[in-house]
Amino acid sequence: xxxxxxxxxxxxxxxxxxxxxxxxxxxxxxxxxxxxxxxxxxxxxxxxxxxxxxxxxxxxxxxxxxxxxxxxxxxxxxxxxxxxxxxxxxxxxxxxxxxxxxxxxxxxxxxxxxxxxxxxxxxxxxxxxxxxxxxxxxxxxxxxxxxxxxxxxxxxxxxxxxxxxxxxxxxxxxxxxxxxxxxxxxxxxxxxxxxxxxxxxxxxxxxxxxxxxxxxxxxxxxxxxxxxxxxxxxxxxxxxxxxxxxxxxxxxxxxxxxxxxxxxxxxxxxxxxxxxxxxxxxxxxxxxxxxxxxxxxxxxxxxxxxxxxxxxxxxxxxxxxxxxxxxxxxxxxxxxxxxxxxxxxxxxxxxxxxxxxxxxxxxxxxxxxxxxxxxxxxxxxxxxxxxxxxxxxxxxxxxxxxxxxxxxxxxxxxxxxxxxxxxxxxxxxxxxxxxxxxxxxxxxxxxxxxxxxxxxxxxxxxxxxxxxxxxxxxxxx
Length: 477
Fold this sequence. Notes:
Layout: H1 7-23, H2 31-50, H3 55-68, H4 70-88, H5 91-100, H6 108-123, H7 126-144, H8 148-165, H9 170-179, H10 183-211, H11 221-230, H12 239-249, H13 254-272, H14 274-281, H15 288-300, H16 310-316, H17 325-344, H18 346-355, H19 361-379, H20 382-399, H21 404-415, H22 426-435, H23 439-442, H24 447-462
């Protein structure tokens, strides 16, 4: 009977593998979701016919699982809106404009990491960062004489650092929500493993840049001219992210912070970028209704802004709330799969096999990180890795008295950053294609990505900032 518990996973692995082979980076557009529903059906059939479980009980558990992710869905919709408003209002373009001015040959590697980290942190997307700024930095790095692996490694390191800590990132929201951890609590707790690892990576890039024999001058003037031509660039626009940071530091609820950040950006955009907003609405030189229409489109829909620079056009393109629908669709289907596994007891059967190896904090975290990495390899998708590893270990963390934030951090340390290191994973496939560098070529130089899981385990072994509920210390075996 226990062997049948593996059947839904086997079906899912086979289907997702086929989807990646057929659809490539477009797998998340729907193929993965269908695969999850098919695997869910297999799980339900096994539970109903092999374990004699009633359909009503299975349906209730699946419904409860989907209902539990409702806050995450709302936050994702807000994230779509904030991504559009922060871009069109000129906040993100201003950050990019000033950030690109720091690039010099001897500090190119560390600068590219910092720039990608800044952009990814602001927009919450490693994919967009790599596909836009990353592509530009590849050309600049080659002009300086750096090897492709070093350039791509610095870009990916920064992009995934920013993605991991950004409150706008769907993986960050996903990891916090499925584990039951408040978003900003999750982000703050990740700092203890993420920042030290990033600092080590930056140190390596800095030393490499200073010691390598490279020459040439990167030309970012085209990007800067395109930004100035399209947006009003001003340091005053940075007041909005500063105020948002203050709200985060004061631990306001994430939904409140994101909603207020949208309102602030929309207000600033209507004051500063009014011509651009009229252009988006399709009514050049329009009045108040035109501005209202344009800002509403920025919040909920897709905006294509012509800057005169093709790569820059991709960067400033936003998708609004509508752009979050594939991720929301995936979450609902994954929760359906998780609910089916839980209701049928198949998840518990698999957990018993894994938990036999758990003896303390370090082994529990190592098991979580290892499971997330395995899912990245087997299922070829970071979203599935986060959701399945969280669902598998959630009850175990609760049983042993650990706070949910330890689970959410372990899932991100194991899943989010390692996805790009797997050639057939949707992340690895996308980034290698976009940058034109094979996954195995840049892998050795993605120091942050493969050091993060190790750091997570080491921190758990030391017991640093890890306590059981009630303040008791942990066993680190």
